[in-house]
Records
---
Amino acid sequence: MTSLLGDKPGSFLRMIRRARRGRFKIYLGYGAGVGKTYQMLVEGHRLKAEGIDVVIGLVETHGRPDTAKLIEGLEVVSKRKEEYRGISLEEMDVDAIIARRPQVALIDELAHTNAPGSKNPKRYQDVQEILVAGVHVITTLNVQHLESLYDTVEKNVHVKVRERIPDWIIGEADEIVNVDLSPEDLQKRLQDGKIYPVERIQTALSNFFTTDNLETLRELTLRELVSQIDSKRREHVEDQNPIAPDQVMVCLSSGGPNSARLLRYASRLAGRLNRNWYALYVQTPSEAPTVIDPRTQTILSETLTLAKQLGAIVFTYKGADVTETILRFAKEYRVGHIVIGTPGPVPWWKRTLGKRSLVERLIEDARGVTVVVLDTHEPHVSEKEKPVAEPVENHLAAPIQSQAILRLTSLLSPNQIVFWNEPITKDVLLKRLVETVASAVTTPPKDILNELLKRENESSTFFNEGVAFPHVRVDGIKNPLLALGVASQGISDVQTEIPVKLIFLIIAPKEDPNVQIRILGMVSRLARNENFVEQMLKSDSSEKAWISLLAFEKDVSQK
């Protein structure tokens, strides 16, 4: 086993003893049977022997006697029963675990999809809720369940992974342990009946458990670990010695095929470069909400939601010239890599008039920017190569880093946190937030507000996920300014599926665009931390919110 972020046997134990909120540990593997659940239970016994209060929130033994034996001696929280189409299903009882308030909960299969009618659709959301309640969680995960690897796994392993989790979940882990086993040893375990019943062994060996498949998944697991290690290292180095960012952006369209493939590729590229990344949709006049058909609107909404889940900072810009809008965005946000799908053909008669495709214009006009054109055509797949469903075990048929939180309190003060207990309009909210930092700016507040509203009209940051990041660069300031608005009843004139309740206003020096980009990435990661969001929404005054911020900062700095 290889441990990331906690390379000494007692490191997680030390984190538990000094923590004030839930710590998160993942046993990561490349397939069923490598020993993730077994190792999780072994650690549970070790923690219990050290005097830690440990319970089993949920463990799936899949009939494996060695695993089942390890449950003995550990307290098990009873499961909750859910009726679905006349069938009684058992799921983890989140409320019971929180009410029991153990120090550590052992929760198997992080990517599991809960039964319809459950409190949360996915188990990783259950885990997030338990962590917010201050309970430490140890869990298990196979690498193929990461959303950004879906296309890679389908292409190379010929498996369609139905249950997936956003990549930022693994980025939030305090410790990741790689549970490794050679493909030959794993196949031997399978043949010995230690993974599946006898009747499933030959089918598994012929499909999912081939040597090529296992070696590919093992390599992906090791690459993911290296990526996480490198991300932590670079983050620390760049915090000490900031350099000009080289961000990644992916260009989306309402009718483009395989937008999900584009997003997953951009997510992996940004991960390798350890950069913020953006998903940009340019809304042309022909695609205004009053013009675009409902089906296309639904597809676009789902695409932008997936972008958010993968960790992108999402923007919707309005513009008649798509290429010009993309390049303007790339210049302002210090983009070094533009990812775009295969363009449609330009009719020959248009070419005779000098018409170029969007990609041709980008390649010609994007000075100093790498343009990555991803083949988004649907590949022809033979019957032999058609993907199959992955082996089913128990399925139904953003990270915040300590450096980011340390900077937050240097940018905010209690009088820069504003609460509204009644619905508020967007313009009034922005005006009030600008006023909280006006004393530190020589530019008239009215001018800042006008620039802000102009930007919001062009590209609203009040998007679907409950948090907004209005931002603007102005003359006359040397240091960035931040204000935080908490609108418990939402924004009355902003219609989103999830009401916007948390608003970060960022005002950055005009001559230093890198600062704006760094803060935007910081608060974007912060907003994905459910513990932080819940603390802010529970506060009812700027003073209480500030006290919570200080406590949150102190806690995370001890990580």
---
Amino acid sequence: MSYENFKIETDSDGIAVVTWDMPGKSMNVIDLSVMEEWEKIIDELVADDAVKGVVLASGKKTFGAGADLSMLQQMLGEYKQKFSEDNEAATQLLFDNAYRLNQLLRKQETSGKPFVAAINGQALGGCLEMCLACHARVMADDAKVALPEVKVGLFPGGGGTQRTPRLMHTQEALQFLLKGGNMHPGKAKANGLVTEVVPEGELVSKAKELINNGLKGVQPWDERGFRLPGNKVYSPAGFQLFPPANAIYRRETQDNYPGARAIMKCVYEGLLVPFDTALKIESRYFAQVLRSTEASMMIRTLFMSMQELNKGARRPKGIEKNEIGKIGVLGAGLMGAGIAYVSAKAGIDVILIDRDQEAADKGKAHSESLEDKAISKKRSTAEKKEEILSRITPTDDYSKLSDVDMVIEAVFEDSNVKKIVTEQAEAHMPEGAVFASNTSTIPISDLAKFSKRPEQFVGIHFFSPVNMMMLVEVIKGGKTGDKAIAMALDYIARIKKTPIVVNDTRGFFVNRCVLRYMSEAYNMLSEGVPPAMIENLAKQAGMPLGPLQLNDETAIDLSHKILHQTIRDLGEDAVEKRHIELVDAMVEKHGRLGKKNGKGFYDYPEKPAKKHLWPGLKEMYPQQKADEIDRQEIIDRFHATIAVEAARCVEENVVVDVREADVGSILGFGFAPFTGGAISYIDGMGTKAFVELLAKLEKKYGEQFKANDLLIEMAKNDEKFYDRFSPTGEPQKEAA
């Protein structure tokens, strides 16, 4: 029998090698067609007496990327459609669909014949679960495995929560499931997740060897006398594991993620019952989580939208791809040095310019230190380090920009300084090269006035630290041409980061939102909300860093410069008086610049001592009693001040694609990922309820919570942003 997604070859020893190679796809994924064919293959090979074992291999560079999330969205759509007719039948349908993969993989592992997975590249999500349902796994020595579903609001629903804690110690299994990160070959073997690790070219031969040496077609948990690697739940070891594991789970997630919560429940409950019952428990929880608002929003933003943006959804049409071989970076400080590093790492030659050779050399040394850290963690090699460093040329000579494709300016957040370096660079740049400014807040149209060719002037806003932050904000000035936008997006794709494209305004999109977050913390400080409460409740709201710590990371003196630049540009009324008083006191009176000088809202003592909130902070304002403060209201203030600013950006046409508002808010500063982003937060709550919340907060705390006209109009019919605006961001009807 022939199949569309698989090829079968049986050797003289009776071992069938099944090669999974989906046509027209760069990576294998589990969809309905794959499940249907895999079940037929299992039936065919089990019924064939000449076949004594099966090797499952991939015909692509990587084993597989997991389940097709569009299939899950289809399942959810069928459920919602049926729900209006018959609640009980709809729920049963969703469970049956969720349980189907578990039934299929259980059929595979109880077939009586040994199955061995040959894992190359990466095996992720459901594809790894297929491997776990094999009786042995052979992994290439440069491969990786992961169950990353928790990162998009779900959890492994193909037996992953049940097989991992039966193959490896429960504590290791919980970390693997809850973090969703990669596990490398050595650790995978040490933990019992894989059987053998070999060079990629030996995968299939080693898999055959295992079968020829008598591998049994029975899983350990199906044999008599099986003992859990981490011992029983109701045992001294179990009592020592689960209470602290639950405490760690609460600390890390604040219980905001239904998928993570379900992992804890599935592992705990599943280890108490027989394996087949455990799989049903997992499928019930999976169907429950799939229905959650959090999963729906996270799948849309962190998978579908990110994938579309990374593939160039916002790239101008009809412009040929730019092959970027060489760039110039102006400013070798932390930001410029980081840009130079990620560019060189992507194979681009970099001219790194600063005021003198010593400063430029210091910028290059940053790349060396990053590579040294990577080598110490076995994520790089001495050869790769030398290759990267050889691409960076530190200098104070602007004439070396004569053959670059693009220049990225990353100097101080001062218009006068930016004017000087722009003019110096353009005196030497090729005629067709693009000039990009990494400004944090100054409008690109204002900076483009310093350029002789404003149509080739664009904003490329990185986030710090550059090597770790995945978002890059591309800003289109009033005269920026499509070719400059295309060049910026091609460059961002080359360095493997996620772009959003926004129209020009002070602070652009991400900083407009994040400054609202920090500004609300300033408001709370001045109101006498205890600093520790501000930070802790921000984390309960789902933010990775409290606003005070975030301000320390970005530098308080940068906030000082931004506020004073705003006053120079727009006048004193453009900045709230209590904010400028706070920041001036921190910087000018107390010399607290942030983490970079070890003194900010936090104190940063030398290790091993840990950072802690500066005691003097609570002495700056009379303190409220913590027990009398409404905790949920503080959480609502953090969410609402960011979300309403995002809605204003949509109305003002700063953001023309709502997907970018969501992706940008999460990747840019970590806005509560469980909400799906700042716009999805509003959609999840409903615009009517959100406007009502804003009215309550505005009355009590001020105009920063005032609903804009677009929100007010949408609230009349409880309209959602993703319904009102098409996927490309073009309004389906006029905004207010």
---
Amino acid sequence: MENAIGTIDIVVIAIYFVVVFAIGIGVALKTKSSDDLFLGGRSLTWGFIGLSLFASNISTSTIMGLSGAAYNSGIAQSMYEWMSGIPLIIAAIVFVPLYLKSKITTIPEFLMLRYDRRSQVIFSLLTIFASIVVETAGGLYAGAIVMKTFFPNLVIWQTTFVLAFIAGLYTAFGGLKAVVYTDALQALILIIGCGILTFMLFERLDFSWDTVVASAPANHFSVVRPIDDPSLPWPGIFFGVLLLGFWYWSTNQYIVQRILGAKDLQHARWGVILAGFLKIIPLFIMVIPGAMAISLFPGLENGDMVFPTAVTSVLPAGLVGLVMAGLISAIMSSVDSTLNSSSTLIVIDFIKPAKPDLTPAQVTNYGRITTIILMVVAAGWAPMIANFGGIWAYLQQMYAMFVPAVVIIFLVGAFYKKGNAEGAFWTLIIGTSIGIGFFVLQQMGLWQLHYTITVGVTTAISGLIFWIVSSNSQAPSAEVVANYTFSSELVNEDNHGLPWYKNYINQIYLLAAVILLVLIILW
């Protein structure tokens, strides 16, 4: 490590913390009701929604995981980032209008309206598990690794608790609006900091792309890989990347919650499309730097250390602090979002139904207490992630267990009018059990298919279950079909009479063209 963290770096980080806490305290003073705490008063505009979607998704586990994957196996896994625009387009067209029309606070609430209480409870529990054990703990663990790079004497478990406390404090009292406002700041810091690092890495290579390519193994910069590729075989693009992406961007409470807090349908859709464009940026400031590091820092054994090594070896004093603030921002933006969404799920899906006479003030207090409890649980589990062979592998393997069943009941359920409560319930039960079974067999070495292909297999089985059970049980009512399944009228709802640049359909065309161009270049 060439550059130790200096006084000026600590000052930069301290300024960042002061600003974040000032925003959190300012919003907390205005947070009075449960609607304020959980949905930001349903007043969020498109810019804050888009930046918050980006920042909440780009956690330290994403930065370090993508850089490490690019260093070890190539840039194929970058497709999880820049191809996010495709599931976001589906969300903008199909699910954003359905969710906002339903006036829900949580995504599991939508399942109660579309199917029944059983599906709501199961999906809510799965989402809470994913948010705390996977997302929050993963972000805290990655953050602790980063901090330990700069301060070698830190203890991982102690660091995760400190980070969780900092993020949890303003989340518990400021709610979603504090999360979104701080996310917007964090997104900007993250882009600037990682952008500077990328520039300086490229400068060390004399701005020669040929040098970058020459130092990497064959096909390192190709995203379409053979079927036996260990990082991302080509069938995984269609099964793993797109199906996991759909679950993440259309049904994941901690992501969709800021969409539910939009002031109207137009701002929700604009924010979603903005996030699609922003998701292309990590390819250039997180993935490609990992590939550049091959020639600059050969022989690193742990891929998760690629990004911290680049920061401490390349950047001068002051800029180390800026990137450090960006990495801390990534920790905050993922942890605050998952804590807020999980407390929302617990309060709205479980506590309120059990205690229907709660006052708005009591609901708000339950939300704050729940946030603090979840903060402690996530911090306690985070150190265990070291046993899963890398952050990125941990995240994707955990998701592959339950995503297929969820994809079917949402995506197929939106178009299959006969899909009913029995079909959704048994799809969740059996499909998730099969996903867990494949996960266990894979950990034991008895299942050899890549997890992205396994997602496709489990999704196909789940779809068959949904169809068979729904076809042999009572169809949903006409009211349910009319209100909670897709119809062509939703495509242009609130989209008439707008200037061409405000028409989200035109924005979708542009986003799709950019994604296609990137695919052609990286093929």
